[in-house]
Amino acid sequence: MKILVRNLARTTTEEAVRTLFAGFGHVAAVTIVMDPATKQSKGFGFVEMPNPKHAVTAVKRSNLTRFEGSVIRVKLSEDKPAENKPAEDDATEA
Asked: For the whole model, what pTM was predicted?
Protein backbone atom coordinates (compact mmCIF):
# COMPACT_ATOMS: atom_id res chain seq x y z
CA MET A 1 0.00 0.00 0.00
CA LYS A 2 1.16 3.49 -0.72
CA ILE A 3 1.31 5.98 2.14
CA LEU A 4 1.47 9.76 1.77
CA VAL A 5 3.69 11.54 4.30
CA ARG A 6 3.27 15.33 4.43
CA ASN A 7 4.91 18.18 6.33
CA LEU A 8 8.37 16.62 6.30
CA ALA A 9 11.29 18.85 7.24
CA ARG A 10 13.07 19.95 4.05
CA THR A 11 16.22 18.23 5.32
CA THR A 12 14.58 14.84 5.95
CA THR A 13 16.15 12.05 3.90
CA GLU A 14 14.56 8.99 2.33
CA GLU A 15 16.70 6.83 4.62
CA ALA A 16 15.31 8.57 7.73
CA VAL A 17 11.73 8.01 6.53
CA ARG A 18 12.54 4.38 5.74
CA THR A 19 13.90 3.90 9.25
CA LEU A 20 10.78 5.43 10.81
CA PHE A 21 8.37 3.23 8.87
CA ALA A 22 10.49 0.06 9.13
CA GLY A 23 9.45 0.01 12.77
CA PHE A 24 5.95 -0.94 11.56
CA GLY A 25 6.93 -3.58 8.97
CA HIS A 26 8.67 -4.13 5.65
CA VAL A 27 9.17 -0.98 3.56
CA ALA A 28 9.43 -1.67 -0.17
CA ALA A 29 10.21 1.89 -1.27
CA VAL A 30 10.48 5.49 -0.08
CA THR A 31 10.34 8.53 -2.34
CA ILE A 32 10.66 12.13 -1.22
CA VAL A 33 9.31 14.49 -3.87
CA MET A 34 11.94 16.98 -5.01
CA ASP A 35 11.52 20.33 -6.75
CA PRO A 36 13.19 19.92 -10.16
CA ALA A 37 14.30 23.56 -10.28
CA THR A 38 15.85 23.85 -6.81
CA LYS A 39 16.65 20.15 -6.24
CA GLN A 40 15.26 20.56 -2.70
CA SER A 41 12.55 18.58 -0.97
CA LYS A 42 8.98 19.75 -1.42
CA GLY A 43 8.24 18.52 2.12
CA PHE A 44 6.27 15.41 1.27
CA GLY A 45 6.84 11.90 0.05
CA PHE A 46 5.54 8.39 -0.31
CA VAL A 47 6.23 5.13 1.48
CA GLU A 48 5.28 1.78 -0.02
CA MET A 49 4.52 -1.06 2.36
CA PRO A 50 3.39 -4.35 0.78
CA ASN A 51 1.53 -5.61 3.87
CA PRO A 52 -1.78 -3.69 4.21
CA LYS A 53 -2.06 -4.41 7.95
CA HIS A 54 1.40 -2.95 8.56
CA ALA A 55 0.61 0.07 6.38
CA VAL A 56 -2.61 0.85 8.28
CA THR A 57 -0.80 0.49 11.61
CA ALA A 58 1.99 2.78 10.38
CA VAL A 59 -0.54 5.45 9.38
CA LYS A 60 -2.43 5.27 12.67
CA ARG A 61 0.68 5.38 14.84
CA SER A 62 2.72 7.97 12.93
CA ASN A 63 0.09 10.53 11.92
CA LEU A 64 0.48 13.82 13.79
CA THR A 65 3.71 12.74 15.48
CA ARG A 66 6.88 14.82 15.69
CA PHE A 67 9.59 13.63 13.30
CA GLU A 68 12.85 15.49 12.75
CA GLY A 69 11.39 18.73 14.09
CA SER A 70 8.07 18.67 12.21
CA VAL A 71 4.65 17.28 13.04
CA ILE A 72 4.03 14.96 10.10
CA ARG A 73 0.67 14.15 8.58
CA VAL A 74 0.32 10.59 7.33
CA LYS A 75 -2.49 8.90 5.42
CA LEU A 76 -3.05 6.19 2.87
CA SER A 77 -2.42 7.55 -0.61
CA GLU A 78 -5.26 7.66 -3.07
CA ASP A 79 -4.56 6.94 -6.73
CA LYS A 80 -4.93 9.93 -9.01
CA PRO A 81 -7.77 9.59 -11.50
CA ALA A 82 -6.34 8.96 -14.95
CA GLU A 83 -6.63 11.98 -17.19
CA ASN A 84 -8.10 11.59 -20.66
CA LYS A 85 -9.08 8.02 -19.91
CA PRO A 86 -12.42 7.29 -21.57
CA ALA A 87 -15.05 5.81 -19.33
CA GLU A 88 -16.19 2.32 -20.27
CA ASP A 89 -19.74 3.64 -20.76
CA ASP A 90 -18.46 6.12 -23.36
CA ALA A 91 -17.19 3.42 -25.73
CA THR A 92 -19.09 3.51 -28.98
CA GLU A 93 -19.67 0.56 -31.24
CA ALA A 94 -18.70 0.86 -34.88
From this structure: 0.82
